[in-house]
Amino acid sequence: MVIRSVGVIGSGTMGAGIAQTTAQHGYQVVLFDRSEEIVNKSKAAIDRQIDRLAEKGKLSAEAAADVKGAIRTTVRLSDMQECQLVIEAVPESMDIKRDVFRKLDESCPGETILASNTSSFSITAIAAETSLPARVAGLHFFNPAPLMPLVEVVKGIRTSEETIRALLEFAASIGKSAVSCADTPGFIVNRVARPFYNEALRILGDRIATAEQIDRIMKRSGQFRMGPFELQDLIGIDINFSTTVSVYEAFYGDPRFRPHYYQQRMAQSGRLGRKTGEGYYSYEGTP
């Protein structure tokens, strides 16, 4: 299959980043969200990012115009029928994802590949909502999608090898380094990352050190680019907590992955990190 047009479902941080990255590498993109106000706001934000790249000399003015023109917005899922690949990037709710895939299964031709950007949910379970589970796989980007080089390509129990090959080739074509993995809770990266976040939260909860101290130590002694609390703020504390809960439950309550109540309280408070202007750190006035 030759992929020429890519649909992206959800125009939030991840969906917008995936759309931008895909358009920058020569694909036509159809970006969907539930209202014109939401999707138009996201498209304007993407256009600003492209303009900044042009201002910095990373894109010519002509190339920037081409990228912006390659992204079309829609509020109709039926418009995805023109795409050879559709990437779902809606919030981490299994109910929402199942509903999206049921509707995509009805709208898209049988040869269209349907991929989920989920960070921890079962691809096999999502694929079960469709009539052709062989064409369903995981395509997990990392935030920010235009910058992070890794993509996890996740094979559900009934995902075909043809689908996996097509997604590996697609990932390479947009400049990503792809790793193929089995459909297990958290896949690779998020499974490895749970102790990084959870133990830092326990240290904070036990009042051994502050978030600032823990981040500084991890960066200075461990050579991490960001500490665990800075990363949570970047990803979104609610998203990070949801992923931890998902992995914990999928491993039937394995204590290695037990969520920490403090992260839950942060999510409940609405202090979700950079996207709300405040998390473990304050971002008021940050562009």
Automatic annotation (TrEMBL):
<dbReference type="InterPro" id="IPR036291">
    <property type="entry name" value="NAD(P)-bd_dom_sf"/>
</dbReference>
<feature type="binding site">
    <location>
        <begin position="10"/>
        <end position="15"/>
    </location>
    <ligand>
        <name>NAD(+)</name>
    </ligand>
</feature>
<dbReference type="InterPro" id="IPR022694">
    <property type="entry name" value="3-OHacyl-CoA_DH"/>
</dbReference>
<keyword id="KW-0520">NAD</keyword>
<feature type="binding site">
    <location>
        <position position="275"/>
    </location>
    <ligand>
        <name>NAD(+)</name>
    </ligand>
</feature>
<feature type="binding site">
    <location>
        <position position="97"/>
    </location>
    <ligand>
        <name>NAD(+)</name>
    </ligand>
</feature>
<dbReference type="InterPro" id="IPR008927">
    <property type="entry name" value="6-PGluconate_DH-like_C_sf"/>
</dbReference>
<keyword id="KW-0560">Oxidoreductase</keyword>
<comment type="pathway">
    <text>Lipid metabolism; butanoate metabolism.</text>
</comment>
<dbReference type="GO" id="GO:0070403">
    <property type="term" value="F:NAD+ binding"/>
</dbReference>
<dbReference type="Pfam" id="PF02737">
    <property type="entry name" value="3HCDH_N"/>
</dbReference>
<feature type="binding site">
    <location>
        <position position="119"/>
    </location>
    <ligand>
        <name>NAD(+)</name>
    </ligand>
</feature>
<dbReference type="GO" id="GO:0008691">
    <property type="term" value="F:3-hydroxybutyryl-CoA dehydrogenase activity"/>
</dbReference>
<dbReference type="InterPro" id="IPR006176">
    <property type="entry name" value="3-OHacyl-CoA_DH_NAD-bd"/>
</dbReference>
<dbReference type="InterPro" id="IPR006108">
    <property type="entry name" value="3HC_DH_C"/>
</dbReference>
<feature type="binding site">
    <location>
        <position position="92"/>
    </location>
    <ligand>
        <name>NAD(+)</name>
    </ligand>
</feature>
<dbReference type="Pfam" id="PF00725">
    <property type="entry name" value="3HCDH"/>
</dbReference>
<protein>
    <submittedName>
        <fullName>3-hydroxybutyryl-CoA dehydrogenase</fullName>
    </submittedName>
</protein>
<feature type="site" description="Important for catalytic activity">
    <location>
        <position position="140"/>
    </location>
</feature>
<feature type="binding site">
    <location>
        <position position="143"/>
    </location>
    <ligand>
        <name>NAD(+)</name>
    </ligand>
</feature>
<comment type="similarity">
    <text>Belongs to the 3-hydroxyacyl-CoA dehydrogenase family.</text>
</comment>
<feature type="domain" description="3-hydroxyacyl-CoA dehydrogenase NAD binding">
    <location>
        <begin position="6"/>
        <end position="183"/>
    </location>
</feature>
<feature type="binding site">
    <location>
        <position position="33"/>
    </location>
    <ligand>
        <name>NAD(+)</name>
    </ligand>
</feature>
<dbReference type="GO" id="GO:0006635">
    <property type="term" value="P:fatty acid beta-oxidation"/>
</dbReference>
<feature type="domain" description="3-hydroxyacyl-CoA dehydrogenase C-terminal">
    <location>
        <begin position="186"/>
        <end position="283"/>
    </location>
</feature>
